[in-house]
Design goal:
alpha/beta; 6-stranded parallel beta sheet; 15 helices
């Protein structure tokens, strides 16, 4: 969440703009009349950097946010929302969230020229709900545009050496991921598991096992080799995350933003996509990816690296960036890439921070 939320914040943090984080206030709590009045009276625009919000276990939060938006009198912009379904990408799997999604999107476009979605799968879902191209813009994930249209990732190694520095990211709930983690840990002595979840942080700080994963081959407890060998890392600031990944030779795994972080650090990465939200983003951005719905066969990191072609990603970036910039312009959101924008404010604050 650091990556896409900060990317939107950074793009809007220009001279003369005052940004305030609503955080998840209006998702976690039923909005009060005072909340609504404060937003309408104190702010000019309500901006929502979003992720895979169209999913069954997020319906209550989505409804609370819809109830907030329905009472707003200021413009509302949703940046990069996506639907989540199995890798089969069957719209029928989204039936339980149709009503909540339609309510949310209707509330947004009553206060906005369009809604920004992550990819074509989400666009198809909204088309099925009755929202046409004039209301739905495919813009991908803003986390991949933060370095501008000319950014490139270079693949420097012809092949992975035995002592390659590898950054592995995992989704512990994916079927077969535990055995995969053991195989990767034993095959690569310089491999580090980059964790991304609060459960992982509790494990690393206090030894608390992850409560919602039954696969004990996964790195969710203190007996796992990656834990015992001190080959787990978790970053609580994205800047230190970028710095670490910039020193690695290759990153791979199931976490979309784990691989985005590597790419933004200039390190080649391969996404092992396992559901619709990761597939549609990878396809839109032309990220190196492979569909792996279940980890039931051995996977070679060397072979993944050999098949990691970063050139389609580099080629697609400028066009995707222009779509994102046009979306911000369309929503009258002044941003750092505007020709008249002063954009030193964010960089100056960042330079003063200590991590």
């Amino acid at each position: 969440n650091f990556l896409f939320q900060h990317a939107v914040w950074e793009s809007l943090a220009i001279d003369g703009a005052e940004l305030t984080a609503n955080s998840t206030l209006t998702e976690r709590n039923k909005p009060t009349a005072n909340d609504i009045a404060a937003i309408n009276e104190q702010f000019d625009h309500f901006v929502i950097p979003f992720a895979n919000a169209f999913r069954p276990d997020f319906v209550e939060q989505l409804d609370r946010l819809s109830a907030t938006i329905e009472q707003l009198t200021i413009p509302v912009s949703v940046v990069g929302v996506g639907a989540q379904a199995p890798a089969s990408m069957d719209l029928a799997d989204l039936a339980p969230i149709r009503a909540a999604t339609k309510r949310f999107v209707s509330a947004v476009i009553d206060r906005s020229p369009s809604i920004g979605v992550r990819g074509e799968f989400t666009q198809r879902f909204l088309h099925e709900l009755g929202f046409g191209d004039d209301h739905v813009d495919v813009i991908g994930c803003p986390s991949l545009f933060r370095r501008g249209p000319d950014f490139r990732v270079e693949k420097d190694l012809g092949s992975l050496p035995a002592d390659a520095r590898l950054a592995l990211n995992l989704t512990p709930e994916v079927r077969g991921i535990g055995q995969f983690s053991l195989e990767q840990a034993s095959s690569h002595r310089n491999l580090t598991y980059i964790a991304q979840d609060g459960h992982d942080l509790r494990l690393m700080l206090w030894g608390v096992p992850r409560p919602n994963v039954s696969d004990l081959n996964a790195p969710v407890h203190m007996a796992h080799p990656l834990y015992r060998d001190e080959r787990m890392r978790m970053f609580v600031d994205q800047w230190t995350w970028f710095d670490y990944l910039a020193e690695q030779d290759f990153a791979y795994g199931t976490r979309f933003h784990g691989n985005v972080a590597a790419l933004m650090a200039g390190t080649p990465a391969m996404l092992l996509a396992h559901d619709s939200r990761t597939v549609e983003l990878a396809e839109y951005h032309q990220m190196p990816h492979r569909l792996v719905a279940e980890f039931n066969e051995p996977i070679s990191a060397a072979e993944l690296y050999e098949n990691t072609d970063v050139e389609p990603f580099n080629k697609a970036l400028p066009e995707g960036f222009e779509r994102y910039r046009s979306f911000l312009d369309k929503h009258q959101l002044h941003h750092k890439w505007h020709t008249l924008a002063g954009s030193n404010h964010f960089a100056a604050q960042l330079a003063q921070a200590s991590f």
